[in-house]
Design a protein that fits this description.
Radius of gyration: 11 Å
Shape: globular
Number of helices: 2
Low-confidence stretches: none
Structural class: mainly alpha
Largest sheet: none
Strand content: under 5%
Helix content: 40-55%
Number of strands: 0
Length: about 45
């Protein structure tokens, strides 16, 4: 089982993947969606 992060930066706290980085990134990569919030924040700070 994957460890959950308590300090997840995603504002969508109702998401079933909230705090589960591995499942979240897999969901975004497979779905062709935007990067997860945690990666978007890093990219915005370090273009």
């Amino acid at each position: 089982m994957t460890e959950l992060k308590e300090d997840c930066p995603c504002k969508n706290t109702d998401c079933p993947r909230h705090g589960n980085c591995r499942e979240c990134v897999e969901f975004h990569v497979k779905g062709g969606n935007k990067p997860p919030a945690c990666l978007r924040i890093q990219w915005a700070q370090y273009p």
